[in-house]
Amino acid sequence: MKRIPQRKCVACREMRDKTELLRVSLPSQGRGAYICKNSVCIEQARKTKGLDRSLKGTVPPDIYVQLKESVS
Fold it and tell me: Is the CB of residue 19 less than 8 Å from the CB of residue 36?
């Protein structure tokens, strides 16, 4: 059986299967960050600027709106 890679959510800091997370990246970088597929983690990442730190850049507010829409 093939092993599923694990990644850490930038908001809740829990290790999860890569398939359970959303990958976020900025167009100018190849760097990516992972976040859980729930609105609680998305809101927490916005408040704590977890995606900004992980991506080493500024994440536009509309990205958070798009993430929330994708999990609804």
Answer: no
Q: pLDDT for 19-52, tens place per residue?
A: 999 999 988 888 999 999 999 999 999 999 999 9
**What whole-number distance in Å separates Cα of residue 20 and Cα of residue 23?**
10
**Distance from C-alpha of 41 to C-alpha of 38, rounded to nearest angstrom:** 6
DSSP state letter for 23: E
For all residues of the chain together, what is the average pLDDT?
A: 94
Residue type present at position 65: V
Number of CB atoms found within 10 A of residue 47's CB = 9
Closest CA to 64 of 51, 53, 30: 51
Q: What is the total residue count of the chain?
A: 72
